[in-house]
Amino acid sequence: MTFSQHAAQYPGARRYFAVLLSSMTTFFLWYLVFLMPQKFDLPVTFIVLAILISVGVFVAGIVPETTGWRVKVHRIAAFGFATLMVPLVAVLAVFLPGTLAVRVILGLLALYLANDVWILAKNKGEHPDMLLRQAIYLGVFAVAIMTATFFGRT
Q1: Domain-by-domain residue ranges, the chain?
Q2: N or C: which end of the chain has fewer CB within 10 A?
Q3: pTM
Q4: Which residue in 117, 9, 115, 119 sits closest to 67, CA to CA?
């Protein structure tokens, strides 16, 4: 069971989930589109990926995984934004001005994310440890962004 499947069980939790992801996406988008590319002179590809990820997070947040068309829309948005996190971290690994060690770490984190996407795609989005995998995946993505932010050179 995923985070959103837990939240979809109760109307109050659905609203809270929507507000949480919508507000988080606003700050996430602002940082990744306006601050990070300027600080590190990142390519337009980074900005486009950040916008697409943010749209996916926003859609996944406001369309609960309940029944009917909502399930399909939510899953496409959620898997889409998770998949797009891989090339975003790869762009950082290639274009971030920094030491070789930082770029290698970012490359390894991108490979971890790619492997996780592949495992979930192979299993059609189902896994016995889905909630844990989801938490680790988002944590690894956060570590990649923090690594770039704190150890990239301007």
Answers
A1: 3-151
A2: C
A3: 0.89
A4: 9
